[in-house]
Amino acid sequence: MSAEFDSLVAEFERFQEQGRRAEARLAAYDGMREEIAAVEAVATSPDRGVVVTAGPGGAIRDIQFTEEALRRGPQALSATVMATVQAAVAEGARRQAETVQRYVGDDLDILDQVLETQAELLGVPVEELRSATSPAPVPRALPTRPVTSPGCSRSPACW
Question: pLDDT tens for residues 85-102?
Answer without folding.
Answer: 999 999 999 999 998 888
